[in-house]
Design goal:
Blueprint lengths: L2 H15 L14 H9 L3 H7 L11 H5 L5 H14 L8 H28 L25 H4 L6 H13 L4 H14 L4 H11 L5 H12 L11 H8 L20 H8 L16 H6 L15 E3 L10 H5 L5 E6 H7 L3 H12 L4 E5 L1 H11 L5 E4 L4 H10 L5 E4 L16 H14 L3
Parallel strand pairs: 1-2, 1-4, 2-3, 4-5
Helix pairs in contact: 1-17, 3-6, 5-6, 6-11, 6-20, 9-11, 10-11, 18-19
Length: 440
Amino acid sequence: MTSTQQRQALQATLAAWFPQAEGDPSPIQGGVAAARQRLAAIDPIAYGCSRNHLDGAVTGLSPYIRHGVLSLAEVRDAVFGWLRQRGYGEPGRRAEAQQLAGKLINELGWRDYWQRLWRLLGDGIWHDLEPLRTGHPAEAYAAELPPDITEARTGLACIDAFAAELRTSGWLHNHARMWLASYVVHWRRVRWQAGARWFLQHLLDGDPASNNLSWQWVASSFSSKPYIFSRANLERYAGDRHCRTCPLAAGGCPFQASYESLQQRLFRPEPAPASPEAAPFGAAATAALAPAPPSPAAAFRRPIVWVHGEALGPANPALRSWPSAPALFVFDDALITSAGLSRKRLLFLQECLQELPVTVRRGDGAEQLLAFAAEHGADGVVTSAAVDPRFARIRERLEPRLPVQVLEPEPFVSLETPPDLRRFSRYWRRAEPLVWRQFS
């Protein structure tokens, strides 16, 4: 069977399982082979120089990192390996290496930071972490996205191009995400949660932590000010590809103004910004965030391995610890339906699973795992740690009937004491030196 035929067969299965799922397949293919091909092509220097441009040398690794096909530790080590191959690992060249590859390592740090916040806040990432700094009350924002945005027919060439790319490819450059989010929240005055849900439906790297907290950063509920952009900013990083075809380019472009004028147009005067000390993850909560205790060693003889959507790669510690144990992945009906996941997202997951020694089923996650365990006479379940609280709720349903052992993957950086998570800069001051110590 050719790769095209195999993809068509997977699509047919998913269409039968989830007829309500929308969207055509993404050109981005899932799986370890595709991930490693992209990983081998990274160029940290080119990334650092051009990452903000839509045509820049971005890595395209985010869908694979999000689903554990590649771990942050693997990508970190690949960057360090790239530097060593070019002589930057020699004594006296570490500072130079850090300057050249610092931007890419920094982006990996952002991912680790978001995950740590998600572990701390749980479902709280769906609520404003701080008061909005726009001067508008919460009720001024609509609860749902207008259809002209989701259907890419606003009449603004740039916005419609970004919305169309989101729906067709399942991926967007980070700058395009920021511009689109800013338009939704500040120009159309829609709640950031509506936009966040829309992104999670389609983005192959749709991770609630990175996604929601980035939307909050744009909205100003997790930043010192709202993020907005101007036409000049758009043309600087995207060129004139959108403006030259936009019917509003000659007159009526809502982004054609100085930042000062846009701020006056979009926002009202507001009181002094709240301190991050007052955030729900302030000093007391951060101090209480102790490292998760290791799951007690289980004397299993015949366990099954539970593979979930955060660990779809060979670095999955449960698969590595029990390579011969029966393994199961469940497309959880309730989870998929509630999130409204597109078919392109489901296909990406299925393609990742094709390269793993795992049985794939659909239904209720906990019930399917218990049935699979009974079929194999299992005396326990082994799985990898997951940050998403939805997986914790499945685990809670398993444990009264079958013991569960959770194994931690290799961390991006090990911190002996809980970091201050109120801002990325505070976390990174602690983490960055320890990350680069591993390059020694």
